[in-house]
Write a structure and sequence with these properties.
The chain has a single domain (about 35-255), classed as outer membrane lipoprotein receptor (LolB), chain A, CATH 2.50.20.10. Helix content is about 25%, strand content about 45%. It has five helices and 13 strands. The chain has helices at about 1-25, 35-50, 50-55, 120-135, 135-140, and strands spanning about 60-70, 70-85, 90-95, 100-105, 110-115, 115-120, 150-160, 160-170, 175-180, 190-195, 205-215, 220-230, 230-245. It is of the alpha+beta class.
Length: about 260
């Protein structure tokens, strides 16, 4: 008798759970493509260092840079030291003597040599400032603050035979950047953006691929960065050393305050 009562109670419990199951499933809303995209971007920021990465003030890098033409190395390899002060001040020192200095302020680029201070070529300035304006740092710290910015999930892709989640961020002025993110580490594998040539009116695609990550002071840092223009490799940069939040002085980015360089 007790066994029959127990079996009846079990059957009733299973029946009630089955009745409620569809209701519970229908109450769970599917994740929208925008929610998925924003979740991936949040995970990327967390992987890069979270709030500490967002609050970063500056960094220094030492490495070498190689140029390519039509995807082939030109043989030009140069050692460099670079200094970046958030959000838009950069300084590069080239050659072992560090006697060729290029400085980029928010809107201008200068070169300092033993000959003195001169403006960098207009095309070089535009290319650098455009790339910096679409950097991972600028997009994640600035673009997403605008409520009119649109975030899209575009499915999975491959970056150098590695799977990636593709997310595109579009501003109210129709400027866009695409990130391809490692689904396991959540670190960026590639950043891509397009721009229209003001003279010829054709579109150009700029891409950067990030590899060989090392954790420096808690920040995963890509020690290998490869740049592409319209699908062709144009530059590779390999780092030897990186330092974060060293308190770089603003005077480092004033070309008038660079000490005279000996010939």
């Amino acid at each position: 008798m007790r066994i029959k009562k127990w079996l009846c109670a079990l059957v009733m419990a299973v029946s009630v759970s089955q009745l409620h199951a569809p209701a519970q499933q229908s109450a769970t809303k599917p994740v929208s493509p925008e929610q998925k995209a924003r979740g991936l971007l949040d995970a990327m920021v967390t992987a890069l260092g979270g709030q500490a990465w967002l609050d970063m003030q500056d960094y220094e890098q030492h490495g070498r840079s190689s140029a390519f033409y039509l995807g082939q190395p030109t043989g030009g390899i140069v050692e460099f030291w670079s200094f970046h002060r958030v959000p838009d001040f950069d300084r590069y020192e080239y050659t072992k003597k560090r006697d060729v200095i290029q400085i980029y302020t928010p809107k201008q680029g200068y070169e300092v040599t033993y000959k003195g201070v001169a403006d960098l070529p207009a095309v070089q300035q535009q290319n650098f400032l455009r790339s910096r304006a679409h950097s991972v740092e600028i997009v994640m710290r600035s673009w997403l603050k605008d409520p009119n910015t649109l975030v899209l999930y575009e499915g999975q892709t491959m970056v150098e035979r590695r799977p990636a989640d593709k997310v595109t961020i579009v501003t109210a002025t129709n400027d866009a950047v695409t990130f391809e993110i490692n689904p396991e580490t959540h670190l960026p594998l590639r950043r891509t953006f397009e721009w229209r040539d003001p003279l010829y009116k054709d579109k150009n695609e700029e891409a950067e691929e990030y590899d060989d990550y090392h954790v420096i002071q808690g920040f995963p840092t890509a020690f290998a960065v490869t740049r592409y223009h319209n699908g062709e490799m144009v530059n590779q940069r390999f780092l030897y050393d990186v330092k974060y939040n060293t308190g770089i002085s603003a005077t480092m980015f004033d070309p008038a305050k660079v000490p005279p360089i000996k010939h």
